[in-house]
Design brief:
The complex is a heterodimer. Chain A is α+β, with helices and mostly antiparallel strands. Helix content of chain A is about 35%, strand content about 25%. In chain B, helix 4 packs across helix 9 (about 290-305) and helix 6 crosses helix 7. The chains are: A alpha+beta, B alpha/beta.
């Protein structure tokens, strides 16, 4: 089976609003999980999915970082750690929520890297579809960062807006032809700058930016047949079928 | 379909390297010992050679250097990809100035340490991370994306994780007793496992091959497994592919918690007409979280080579329905294959079938 982009969605932090039903299901969830679930909900509106043959491929640079820092605060204060916070601090916790809320029984895994986690997750989903292991796959990146990260980065740098991007892969839409990702260790002086140059001519400055750009290009039916990136932490090349 | 093969493997656990750990299992030794902490009463599988404080980047670095000592770098292609499976990295250092070896940084560190030029990334599937890392390596090789992939599963003991599991009331007060009628919780451990997985054309010296794999989500609770074992049953189904592959033994997740072990027993009894012999290593080295899948995969290869399923250290009174759990002594495999599986937070389940090469 050829992997094709069937639907896409994105969500920025300011538009994070949840229905009462979702609010109820997420009443104990952290911001990372809430963001990812809200974006997936938007993606799946009007889409028919077969939960038993659908997989979840979550991508993130920093995962639920604030939640992890909140757990550490308990330790520093010498107070009992909140079990709820602890269980949400695991990178794969959010994909567990996605699986439960949307009834998805395929693989539910999280890919973590500083540079191109979405592209890596996309490659895994593409492979699973091509091998016939799945009929559909949801590839979703979310970043919520943390105040500490923002402070470390400094005021002079471009802000890192939190948000999420989700793609539904299936047998209809724009073909994902080929993905090559080659990440390399980021030089210390380049950490937290996040400068990525793309073949579109744009320079990106936060871990979600490239994915947001591809999303916008897809929605505008301008997804290029070849999209390349290069940065201090590696390069990636993606080939797509003709935009429709 | 290309069948990926294993060229090198090894581990470092509370019982030592792969040879010492294997021999320790055959001798029913436990590497667990009481944790020295005023408020958390539990036993842990601590690696004595690691001198740096728990949860720190220094400890992660020490584990990487010691754990990869046995890796034969001369037989490592420079284009080898790296997949790191971990849950927390140097979590107690998170937020400190110049923080290093957080979960998203370990793959780059190992890549530099080994001077490799292939891709590097980190996968997180909670306690199933290691097994998922092996599966991703197989997919990279099957798809032609890579010719060889080094999978490294690693996690250290940290106050973060100890405090978290303590508050979940999931820790056993003494060493854990997987599949025991009176089991009372898990014992945390630390360790590193590595597995060099290759295209079969790349080596004449394969130690085993990977004939099948599966991943499935329960789509249920965030911390508790599905009581019917639905996700794990789907993993068994994917791996055996309708009786195409026979399972000679199972290296189970076997954490020693009431719910995990009950789920696994239910899944095995539901899926197999006669469940194969199965065991858990966690009573001997503790639950090594993201490292567990790779370390247990390495021990599964040992099982194949020695035709033995070791006894489950800590198991004295077998839980009802767990009739094939090994407790007294090692047993032979029923067939020259062994299935290694793990389950974790978020309802994830994953398994790999190893076969003689």
């Amino acid at each position: 089976m050829i992997a094709k982009i069937t639907a896409v969605a994105d969500l920025d932090f300011t538009s994070l609003s949840l229905s009462d039903e979702l609010e109820n299901k997420l009443r104990r969830a952290d911001l990372f999980t809430r963001t990812i679930v809200a974006c997936c909900h938007k993606l799946l509106e009007g889409q028919a999915i077969n939960g038993k043959q659908t997989g979840l491929f979550v991508a993130t640079a920093f995962g639920p970082m604030q939640c992890n820092l909140d757990v550490l605060d308990f330790l520093v204060e010498d107070e009992p750690v909140s079990p709820t916070l602890f269980s949400h601090s695991v990178f794969n916790g959010a994909s567990g929520y996605l699986a439960r809320i949307f009834g998805i029984h395929g693989p539910a895994i999280t890919q973590t890297s500083y540079g191109y986690p979405f592209f890596t997750a996309l490659a895994q989903a593409k492979f699973a579809l091509e091998q016939g292991q799945l009929k559909q796959a949801i590839v979703i990146q979310a970043e919520t960062y943390s105040q500490l990260l923002e402070d470390a980065k400094g005021e002079t740098e471009t802000p890192w807006p939190p948000g999420s991007v989700a793609w539904l892969l299936g047998h209809e839409g724009v073909e994902v032809k080929d993905i090559m990702v080659q990440e390399s260790p980021c030089p210390p002086e380049e950490r937290l700058h996040y400068h990525v140059t793309c073949s579109s001519g744009t320079t990106h400055h936060h871990p979600l930016a490239m994915t947001l750009e591809l999303n916008r290009l897809f929605l505008a039916k301008q997804l290029p047949e070849k999209y390349q990136t290069s940065s201090a932490f590696g390069k990636a090349t993606l080939h797509f079928g003709a935009a429709r | 379909m290309i069948t990926p093969v294993i060229h090198q493997y090894g581990l470092l656990s509370a019982l030592g390297n792969i040879e010492h750990t294997w021999q320790g299992l055959l001798d029913k030794k436990s590497g667990l010992s009481p944790l020295s902490h005023p408020e958390i009463s539990t036993w842990v599988g601590q690696i004595k050679q690691l001198k740096a404080p728990l949860g720190t980047a220094k400890r992660v670095a020490q584990l990487i250097h010691k754990g990869l000592e046995d890796l034969d770098r001369n037989n490592l292609d420079s284009e080898t990809h790296i997949i790191v499976a971990t849950t927390k990295g140097a979590i107690d250092d998170l937020g400190k100035k110049n923080q290093k070896l957080q979960s998203w940084q370990i793959a780059d560190y190992i890549k530099q340490h080994l001077d490799l030029k292939g891709g590097a990334g980190t996968t997180s599937g909670a306690c199933a991370s290691g097994t998922i890392g092996i599966i991703q390596a197989c997919q990279k090789i099957s798809s032609g994306e890579a010719r060889s992939v080094l999978v490294v599963g690693i996690d250290i003991l940290s106050m973060f994780v100890l405090a978290g599991f303590s508050q979940l009331l999931a820790l056993a007060e003494t060493g854990c007793t997987p599949f025991d009628k009176n089991r009372s919780g898990l014992s945390l451990g630390e360790g590193l496992g590595y597995m060099l997985i290759c295209h079969p054309d790349l080596t004449n010296n394969q130690v085993a091959q990977i004939s099948g794999w599966g991943v499935s989500g329960d789509a249920g609770h965030i911390t508790a497994p599905c009581r019917k074992g639905s996700g794990l049953i789907r993993v068994f189904s994917q791996i055996t592919a309708g009786e195409k592959h026979q399972v000679g033994g199972i290296h189970a997740h076997g954490t020693g918690t009431i719910y995990n072990d009950a789920m696994e027993i239910t899944a095995m009894n539901s899926f197999f007409k006669t469940p194969p012999p199965f065991y858990s290593v966690k009573g001997a080295i503790g639950h090594c979280l993201g490292g567990a899948g790779v370390m247990e995969g390495c021990l599964s290869i040992k099982s194949l080579q020695q035709n033995a399923i070791p006894a489950t250290v800590g198991l004295t009174t077998v839980a009802p329905q767990a009739t094939m759990a090994t407790g007294e002594k090692a047993q032979p495999l029923g067939h020259p294959t062994i299935l290694s599986c793990n389950s974790g937070f978020g309802g994830i389940n994953a398994g790999v079938l190893f076969e003689e090469g």
